[in-house]
Design a protein that fits this description.
Strand 15 and strand 16 form a beta hairpin. The protein folds into 3 domains: 112 residues, NAD(P)-binding Rossmann-like Domain (Rossmann fold), CATH 3.40.50.720; 178 residues, 3-Layer(aba) Sandwich (Rossmann fold); 203 residues, 60s Ribosomal Protein L30, Chain: A. Helix 1 packs parallel to helix 12 and helix 5 crosses helix 7. Helices cover 33% and strands 24% of the residues. The strands form 4 sheets. The protein has a 7-stranded parallel beta sheet with strand order 8-7-6-9-10-11-12, with helices on both faces. With 524 residues, it is α/β, with parallel strands linked by helices.
Length: 524
């Protein structure tokens, strides 16, 4: 009999699904949490919420453990890397709180716009001072939505019902999809320039951290309202407080914070801030959906199905020999995506000499890599192609005979409104991934680490100037790879660094007259 250990409270609807499936479930009492390592070896699955930290030590103790079910969206409390290494599938319920998060966005927005919390407190104190609570209407304002995933689209739809004009920033949404939604796609800076209400709906990734930074807060129109019910860390809280104190920002409605609970409550206590303690998903309906979705996912995963919302995947079905090419393909997609400016419309994967049974997995890996820089860990090997389809991104796979240069090769070409980026790679030896074609150049390097990508005029002294500037800044060069084509005036350089350079260093490189463009890419 399948045994499932549930270490945090789970809605009864989820427990009933386990019982109907004939699973042997055990509910761990709070006072027995310290016994998790002792108890886990006897169970096939572990179901947690945010109250249990699933560490590498705990996972290693799970000798029978096949699945960890996280009843919720985030998996910050689960050591996913350790789970992957141990072949343990991690599943979650990423869509369960869609409606709750959408409605909470408007709950705090309206509460802020109409001074509901302070007016309520005033009346309950026995006061009746209507003049103090002059509010703002939403009708006629421009709502800037940052991130047009499911929640962002649902917020935009409801914003239009309030008579608001909708603009949005999402580099991974096809403009044709935005047109069907009657949403104008603009740049992030244009959202900051035009929005009367700016609401954030992106995951926290390296690309979205402080996406609403001090510079963009400085661009906001006088009287803008800022809403964040997405993730702490996607806006600069220090700069937000400064904008509130200066009067540039009319108010902020916040459900999430960089640190929870915050160490400093100065932002929360500001009179023009409405704050809630990360309760966007705290509705009875959402809690029931979380429990039922997680229970179904865990049971499906235990049955061997890969049609689940998995945060990771052990790839046992494709065999160990597939792992190097899956890793290569994902990194090629991530590299190309990090270099593409503007929206992404098409992902083309070209396969030379790749075995038939690996082609689908390699395609999904490349799509996952292309989407990850903006969408983060919500994109998995299971849902990558579906997310691309939802966003109107065309995925094309082409197979070819072996190339003359390499017997097995993967190419990834990303196309968008501003152009295309093409990279290709192969595996050297048994498991050494290499880029072998890069933006039209024959250039070989490992797709990993912290990379500076420069396009420059092919004139003497460029390498010396770049090296001097990096050296003066204390940035150590771990490797440099150069290429040019015969009779071409331009060249390309990929520089691997030990540490991420400062923004001033990147700006200094871009300012060199010989340098045409420079981008920092972090591939991990």
């Amino acid at each position: 009999m399948t045994r499932i250990l549930i270490s945090d409270p789970l809605n009864e609807a989820g427990l009933e699904i386990f019982r109907q499936a004939g699973a042997d479930i055990e509910l761990l009492a709070a006072e027995d949490k310290h016994r998790l390592v002792e108890l886990l070896p006897e169970f096939d699955a572990l179901v947690v919420r945010s109250g249990t930290r699933v560490t590498a030590e705990l996972l290693r103790a799970g000798k029978r453990l096949k699945v960890v079910g996280r009843a919720g969206i985030g998996v910050d409390n689960v050591d996913v890397s350790a789970a992957t290494e141990l072949g343990i599938l991690v599943v979650n319920a990423p869509t369960a709180n869609l409606i709750s998060a959408t409605e909470h966005t408007f709950a705090v927005l309206l509460a802020l716009a109409r001074n509901v919390p302070s007016a309520d407190a005033s009346v309950k104190a026995g006061e009746w001072d209507r003049k103090r609570f002059l509010g703002h209407e939403l009708n006629g304002r421009t709502m800037g939505v940052v991130g047009l995933g499911r929640i962002g689209q649902a917020v935009a739809l409801r914003g239009r019902a309030f008579g608001m004009n909708i603009i949005a920033y999402d580099p991974f949404l096809d403009p044709a999809v935005a047109r069907r939604l009657e949403i104008e796609l603009v740049s992030m800076d244009e959202v900051a320039d035009q929005a009367g209400v700016l609401t954030l709906h992106v995951p926290l990734t390296d690309d979205t951290r402080n996406i609403l930074n001090a510079e963009r807060i400085g661009r906001l129109r006088e009287g803008t309202i800022v809403v964040n019910c997405a993730r702490g860390g996607v806006l600069d809280e220090v700069a937000l407080l400064a904008g509130l104190e200066s009067g540039r920002i009319a108010g902020a409605a916040l459900d999430v914070f960089t640190n929870e609970p915050p160490a400093d409550f100065a932002l929360i206590r500001h009179p023009r801030v409405v704050a809630t303690p990360h309760i966007g998903a705290q509705t009875r309906e959402a809690q029931e959906r979380v429990a039922t979705q997680t229970a179904k996912m865990v049971l499906d995963a235990l049955a061997g199905s890969l049609a689940v919302t998995a945060v990771n995947l052990p790839f046992s079905a494709a065999g160990k020999h597939s792992e190097p090419f899956l890793g290569l393909s994902e990194q090629l997609g991530r590299l190309a995506s990090s270099l593409l400016d503007g929206s992404l419309n098409q992902i083309q994967i070209d396969l030379w000499g790749i075995d038939k049974e690996l082609r689908a997995a390699i395609t999904v890996a490349a799509v996952k890599g292309a989407l990850n820089p903006f969408l983060g860990d919500s994109v998995t090997y299971v849902n990558a192609e579906r997310i691309a389809a939802d966003r109107g991104i065309e995925v094309i796979r082409a197979t070819h005979q072996r190339s003359r240069e390499h017997p097995h090769m993967v190419g990834v070409t990303l196309s968008g409104e501003t152009g295309s980026i093409e990279v290709a790679g192969t595996i050297v030896g048994e498991a050494d991934p290499r880029v072998v074609r890069f933006r039209g150049f024959r250039l070989e390097f490992r797709p990993a680490g912290k990379l500076l990508v420069l396009q420059n005029r092919d004139v003497p002294g460029v390498v010396g100037k770049v090296g001097t500037l990096l050296g003066d800044a204390g940035a150590n060069i771990a490797g440099i790879h150069l290429a040019r084509e015969v009779d071409e005036k331009d060249a390309v350089a990929v520089i691997r660094l030990d540490e991420v350079p400062s923004e001033s260093v990147v700006r200094g490189l871009a300012a060199l007259p010989e340098v045409l463009s420079v981008k920092l890419v972090e591939l991990g």
